[in-house]
Write a structure and sequence with these properties.
Order of helices and strands of chain B: HHHHHH
Largest interface: A-B, 30 and 36 residues
Strand content of chain A: under 5%
Radius of gyration of chain A: 23 Å
Largest sheet of chain B: none
Helix content of chain A: 55-70%
Oligomer: heterodimer
Distance between the termini of chain A: 66 Å
Number of helices of chain A: 8
Order of helices and strands of chain A: HHHHHHHH
Structural class of chain A: mainly alpha
Radius of gyration of chain B: 23 Å
Number of strands of chain A: 0
Largest sheet of chain A: none
Number of strands of chain B: 0
Distance between the termini of chain B: 45 Å
Shape of chain A: globular
Strand content of chain B: under 5%
Chain lengths: ~270, ~140
């Protein structure tokens, strides 16, 4: 009985008191539940903590670029260096991957990369919500990419775009088999792009929650549980570091895959 | 001072700068990370979990799209199980194609005479070349 009381007092990532490890079961998924914020107005608009984090992420990116660009110093300070590095990293990503035409897509890739990066990184912070751990969000982002890529390809190549689904020199007899496969492979980009980000972010946060619950359950189990509880805690410390890596890596992967798809759209073959 | 080495090679400014940069990076030990234990000879760098995750996502996503299309078309046309079955097979093939695009060997065996193989290979090589940058997943 005493362990249930201890577990009930644990604070989950979303900030309210909730049973994270009560009565022997670990509730690792309730951290992804959406709840309205900002009082009655938020409830009226169904403005959830995910929306709030999106706004915060957007404001932080804008603040970084605005405050970083304001001094216009020849020898940049710390903030200006960060802003310049951000600009140059994404710019070289675009130009290296897409080619000289990549400059046109820089604003899109930059926005996408930093929105996802800040969303991922904010989620690692305690009490914060990770909006990229919802497939609705990542699917919307990847649909945006997909529609843009298809639109760009159609705009540049016109109907010639459809030759993308038919590699050069394939015998006509294979076309009925090959074209559907190529189209499916093309369409599967939507799913793979969104699932990759969503699964990584969600898995990381589930693992954090599970090991945090271990700490509480084992810590409440008396003297014998202290050592495994400490071990679980150290795993959690390592996981936070790992999550930081995953957060940056997945934002980068999303951006570079967008660039690769844009390269395909611009150059076809 | 810095113009001196460039004047040796009037036609290769880029190459000479790249050489000097590589030499400088070598001296500083910055290249060690790239040629270190992370890369295995078969080109599958990164850990097994990342590779498994990547293959899984590529295969499953193609299958999900195929099942969705097959099921939707069946509902629309009233041909209940047929199109779903067909699209599951096509989706499996598309998933394998996705995985092949990711892990295709960079230097495919040269057969040369076959234009189709070359067309596919060229695209795969390019996909692979660009995708190598994305660090595992």
């Amino acid at each position: 009985m005493t362990e249930t009381r201890v577990t009930k007092a644990c604070v989950t990532k979303t900030g309210d008191y909730r049973v994270a490890a009560g009565s022997g079961s670990i509730d690792a998924l309730s951290q992804f539940r959406l709840e309205p914020v900002l009082g009655p107005l938020g409830r009226e608009l169904y403005f959830t903590q995910a929306n709030l984090m999106m706004v915060i992420a957007g404001v932080l990116v804008l603040a970084l670029m605005w405050l970083g660009a304001r001094p216009r110093a020849m020898v940049p300070g710390r903030l200006q260096s960060a802003a310049e590095m951000a600009y140059e990293t994404v710019m070289s990503m675009c130009v290296d991957t897409i080619g000289p035409e990549g400059k046109a897509f820089f604003p899109f890739v930059f926005t996408l990369f930093f929105f996802i990066l800040f969303g991922n990184l904010l989620g690692v912070w305690t009490y914060d919500f990770t909006f990229t751990s919802h497939i609705a969000v990542t699917l919307a982002l990847s649909l945006l990419v997909f529609v843009l890529v298809t639109f760009v390809a159609l705009r540049i190549h016109g109907l010639h775009f459809f030759s993308y689904f038919m590699p050069a020199g394939v015998p006509i007899a294979l076309a009925p088999l090959l074209i559907p496969i190529e189209i499916l492979s093309y369409l599967s980009r939507i799913i793979s792009l969104s699932v990759r980000l969503f699964a990584n972010m969600m898995a990381g946060h589930v693992m954090l929650e599970v090991f945090a619950a271990f700490v509480i359950m084992l810590g409440g189990a008396g003297l014998l549980g202290i050592v495994p509880a400490a071990l679980s805690f150290s795993v959690n410390v390592a996981l936070i570091g790992f999550e930081l890596l995953v957060a940056v890596l997945q934002a980068y992967v999303f951006a570079i895959l967008t660039c690769i798809y844009l390269h395909d759209a611009v150059h076809l073959h | 001072m810095s113009e001196e080495p460039e004047s040796d090679e009037p036609d290769g400014h880029e190459a000479s700068f790249e050489d000097r940069l590589a030499a400088a990076r070598d001296k500083q030990g910055l290249e060690a990370a790239q040629s270190g234990p992370g890369k295995s000879p078969d080109g599958l760098d990164g850990n097994a979990l990342a590779i498994g995750m990547r293959v899984g996502v590529e295969m499953v996503s193609a299958l999900v799209v195929a099942v969705a299309i097959g099921w939707g078309l069946d509902r629309l046309l009233g041909t209940k199980p047929i199109l779903l079955a067909v699209f599951v097979l096509l989706g499996g093939a598309a998933g394998v194609l996705n995985v092949w695009r990711v892990f295709a060997p960079k230097h495919a065996p040269a057969s040369g005479k076959d234009a189709r193989a070359k067309g596919v290979r060229d695209r795969d090589a390019r996909d692979k070349g660009v995708r190598d940058k994305d660090g595992g997943l």
